[in-house]
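Record type: monomer structure entry
Structure origin: computed from sequence
Chain ID: A
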Amino acid sequence: MARSTLLNTDTEDLKELLSNGKSYSVPPYQRDYSWKQEHWEDLWEDLATVEANREDHYMGAIVLESGERKQFRVIDGQQRMATLSILILACVDYLYGLASVGVDATANEERATLLESSYLGAKDPTSLRITPKLKLNANDDDFFQLNLAQRKPPQGGVRGLRDSERLLWECFQFFKGKVQGKFSTKKKGEQVAAFVSEIATERLVFISVRVQDQLSAYTVFETLNARGLELTETDLLKNYLLSLADRLSKSQMDPVLRQWARITAKVGIASFPEFLRHHLNSQREYVRQKQLFKTIKQDVSTLDHVFSLLDRLEKDAAWSEGLNDFASQFWLDYQGAKEQVRVLNLFNVSQYTPLVLAAKDAFTAPQDLVEILRYCALLSVRFNGVSRRSTHILEEIYNRAALEVRRGSATTLVAVRQALRPIYIPDEEFEADFAALRLRNRSTSGKRLRYILARIEKQLSGADITDEGMTATVEHILPENPGEVGWEHFTVEAHERSYERVGNYSLLERGLNGQQAGNAAFAQKQTVYAQSQYRTSKDLDQFTDWTEETIAKRQADMAKVAKAIWALTF
């Protein structure tokens, strides 16, 4: 960061921040007030600790953009500054309350007036209007100035307030209660004033970082590690993008904010950075997570860039939402896509997303897109589910394939398959990996096991079954907890090596499994398996005994079947 971009970095308390006519405004694109009771309680406990030991308490960094004269824009720190202002308002309200019932009326009214002018807002000598020290964002400021600063209950009650307005009002009520409880015994206004001027505004210490422009502010975020600050990574990206639209009027800004809200509603606030990276990786050379913000700053530098990016993101957001929910109605026009997306969701794979985002713009036939989804699902079973290779290479290959689609060098399904060939586990390796595969029959692993067994059953028997539609249970042939008779040949170590191998599982009707198979000896179980409709159980009659070697042989046979099921030709 160029030294000239940092105007000042200093340690300041609230009194220093609000002194000498300085004022602060929260940009209109910043998020609304969001602190809740746990945050207010933490602040109150911090103040109690500070008051007891008379030591400073560090409140974190605030990042300010310098404006005209002594005016600053709050890039990070608005939640803390707003909450502290409300705390002071509660103390002022208490002092006015003492004066109204005749408790040292003149002095307490003067104390309240002095605290207001020092920390909340003072009258301009020219206009005689109160100029607030802190202005909140476009959504919250009217309520903050008209209701909180003047301590007037909202008309119509709390029920009609927006979420952030309700939180602001509840924050005020919270601190009113705390101040009342703290000072009600002695009812001395000087103690209230001292609490504000000697504790709240002098002992709470901030690192203030003052920069001269928006870009510098976001470089500061990167330096200080945005995740450690008040803003999330999504906030950081939003604030940068919308800062470029900051000079728009409120009526012009509103559609932009609504578009942002639609996008984040579809992809989720927490998932937005990853979605944005997938979007970028569908259009340009591979962007790593650490490069995301830097890339956005390079690519998006004007208001037209912002509009264009938001339009593209909104289109991609609908696809991203569908790719994360196989049951979405989004897939009604793409026959067969639901099953492929379900498999991708089942194996928790997302690295393929850039390819699909690129393909949707290049392949007009719905069935071509379904086929590309099938490639991705198949590759995920081989690469992620069975062979369990490092996923680092996946992102690079899918990015490369997406760019081939974008640039017109992969215009056919054959070309797309060829682009994905580097992450197609070769048959010999896949077969060996499957032959050694172990899966626990519980939770997500159990769902993946059920899917694999159902596909093998379908391949062997020709029956039209799916893991979702069938009623079968997954049966341990060698039980997880063997009975005392029939399994003596398995040592503890051999049992540990064997009972979660895929070759030790079969599909069995619920009634047969629960009532007749259970933990019985293998020979007894075979009579039950013979009654099953499932080939994976019926075929167990070919084995005379169930040993480690038997399990290994059966799993090797299953691996050959799996190799044929999850296969692509090049």
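Annotation 1: The two ends are 50 Å apart (CA to CA).
Annotation 2: Confidence is low (pLDDT under 50) at residues 1-5, 225-230.
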